[in-house]
Amino acid sequence: MLAPTLIELAARARADLRLGVPICVGGVTLAAAETLSAERLEALGRLGPLTIALTDRRAQTLKARVYDGDISRISVPQGADLAWLRALADPADDLRKPMKGPLLAQRDGDAVPWRTAIALAKAAQVLPAVVGVEVLCPDGLTQLPAHLPPGAAGLPRDVAAARLPMAAARAGRLHVFREDAGGEEHYAVEIGAPDRAAPVLVRLHSACFTGDVLGSLKCDCGPQLHAALDAMGQGGSGILLYLNQEGRGIGLANKMRAYDLQDQGFDTVQANHRLGFEDDERDFRLGASLLKRLGISRIRLMTNNPRKIDMMQAQGIEVAERVPLNVGRGPDNAAYLDVKRDKSGHLR
């Protein structure tokens, strides 16, 4: 078969959105507001009346009506330029320029293609706002159905594994997995030789460039990473899954946008909502999938996040014990950790 599969088309669509290239979803031709150029905006406008779709979180911040549940479709007024669209998508200047309306939200028509497009924008790690027009798909653009079935992002596949001596344990092994159609890579750090017949000490760790690599004091990610590896080394075995879901799944660029909003006085959850994201966009089913590939079905899970426990058990991974991981608290991240506890339900 030479034609691309639906999974491959979805991957191509995510890449196009990052590049600012329009795609077609159902009967809508659209592009990401963040990456769209003025020339392509003008070309889209020549096809018909434009609409910008935002998440309900972003629409609520803008005081726009939400008639489609989790998204809002807003009519773009005649003469609106790229700066106006970007201001709706990006909250960076909300406090300096709060008035952007009146915003006319649409009630009629099919919201499904727009909802799918916003999900693709999130997966592409651009701002979740798309601009488009309901029109037959122009030639040459990536085309997708209005609704993408579960699993359209693909599953992680084994790529490579090799012995890796580490500071935490000389008996180490690194497994590399890659999502179908060239998606993200995720890693399993195997310490020692875990006994698959007994509950294995496991940590699901989401990538945090600022904390893991730069030693950021704004979060506790770096200390948690190293404490987990040390505990596995001292205990003789364990598995640390290093999942490339930076910034709770919104990507590093959007995490920096959230940090900028935090400097304006918003907490972690409020910043995510202003950007148009949920509190946490990660999908922990990925971790369960990797554990199954490693032949692990019973675990002692190092976490403070009850969502991870619930998701592991829902995916058929037995959590025999929760192992608390309370490290790295300091004056720069105390408020952040309190928000995780008070708003996200994290345990101590």
UniProtKB/TrEMBL annotation:
<dbReference type="InterPro" id="IPR000926">
    <property type="entry name" value="RibA"/>
</dbReference>
<feature type="binding site">
    <location>
        <position position="221"/>
    </location>
    <ligand>
        <name>Zn(2+)</name>
    </ligand>
</feature>
<dbReference type="InterPro" id="IPR036144">
    <property type="entry name" value="RibA-like_sf"/>
</dbReference>
<keyword id="KW-0862">Zinc</keyword>
<keyword id="KW-0686">Riboflavin biosynthesis</keyword>
<dbReference type="InterPro" id="IPR032677">
    <property type="entry name" value="GTP_cyclohydro_II"/>
</dbReference>
<feature type="binding site">
    <location>
        <position position="303"/>
    </location>
    <ligand>
        <name>GTP</name>
    </ligand>
</feature>
<feature type="binding site">
    <location>
        <begin position="203"/>
        <end position="207"/>
    </location>
    <ligand>
        <name>GTP</name>
    </ligand>
</feature>
<keyword id="KW-0342">GTP-binding</keyword>
<feature type="binding site">
    <location>
        <position position="268"/>
    </location>
    <ligand>
        <name>GTP</name>
    </ligand>
</feature>
<comment type="function">
    <text>Catalyzes the conversion of GTP to 2,5-diamino-6-ribosylamino-4(3H)-pyrimidinone 5'-phosphate (DARP), formate and pyrophosphate.</text>
</comment>
<keyword id="KW-0547">Nucleotide-binding</keyword>
<comment type="pathway">
    <text>Cofactor biosynthesis; riboflavin biosynthesis; 5-amino-6-(D-ribitylamino)uracil from GTP: step 1/4.</text>
</comment>
<feature type="binding site">
    <location>
        <begin position="246"/>
        <end position="248"/>
    </location>
    <ligand>
        <name>GTP</name>
    </ligand>
</feature>
<comment type="similarity">
    <text>Belongs to the GTP cyclohydrolase II family.</text>
</comment>
<feature type="binding site">
    <location>
        <position position="208"/>
    </location>
    <ligand>
        <name>Zn(2+)</name>
    </ligand>
</feature>
<keyword id="KW-0378">Hydrolase</keyword>
<keyword id="KW-0479">Metal-binding</keyword>
<feature type="binding site">
    <location>
        <position position="224"/>
    </location>
    <ligand>
        <name>GTP</name>
    </ligand>
</feature>
<feature type="binding site">
    <location>
        <position position="308"/>
    </location>
    <ligand>
        <name>GTP</name>
    </ligand>
</feature>
<dbReference type="Pfam" id="PF00925">
    <property type="entry name" value="GTP_cyclohydro2"/>
</dbReference>
<feature type="active site" description="Nucleophile">
    <location>
        <position position="282"/>
    </location>
</feature>
<feature type="active site" description="Proton acceptor">
    <location>
        <position position="280"/>
    </location>
</feature>
<feature type="binding site">
    <location>
        <position position="219"/>
    </location>
    <ligand>
        <name>Zn(2+)</name>
    </ligand>
</feature>
<feature type="domain" description="GTP cyclohydrolase II">
    <location>
        <begin position="160"/>
        <end position="324"/>
    </location>
</feature>
<protein>
    <recommendedName>
        <fullName>GTP cyclohydrolase-2</fullName>
        <ecNumber>3.5.4.25</ecNumber>
    </recommendedName>
</protein>
